[in-house]
Specification:
two-stranded antiparallel ribbon, 6 strands, alpha+beta, 4 helices, 48% helix
């Protein structure tokens, strides 16, 4: 059996959690979204630059959760070209074009900055 006894209140904890609600995460994510678009565009292999110029981002804020998504709109015959570039693909004549790992290395520094800046914001409260 587990027994729990508490004396006092959670005023400081509640104050801290309410102050987190007031932080403007969306404003900061907008800046990071644009930085990610620039980094991904620069890292994307360029033949025609069509895929490199097709990066965008979206911030979704629903049910208490905030998400930052990078997307690429260059699609041919229902296939996102960026996936072919990243993972490789077969060719019509039986050959194979090896993929190039460029998404994760380009976006990793953005993820690190988001985590560091969010943590600094939380620690300031």
């Amino acid at each position: 059996m587990v027994y729990f006894e508490h004396k006092g209140n959670f005023n400081k904890t509640e104050k801290f959690l309410h102050s987190l609600e007031k932080m403007d995460f969306v404003k900061n994510l907008d800046r990071y979204g644009m930085e990610g678009v620039i980094a991904l565009s620069a890292a994307t292999p360029k033949d025609t630059s069509e895929t490199a110029n097709a990066w965008s981002y979206e911030i979704v804020n629903e049910r208490g959760k905030i998400g930052l998504y990078w997307t690429n709109s260059n699609v041919e015959n229902g296939v996102p070209i960026v996936i072919l570039l990243e993972h490789g693909h077969a060719t019509r004549n039986g050959g194979y074009v090896k993929g190039r790992n460029f998404i994760q290395p380009a976006i990793r520094p953005i993820f690190d900055r988001i985590a560091n800046d969010m943590w600094k914001g939380v620690r300031r409260l």
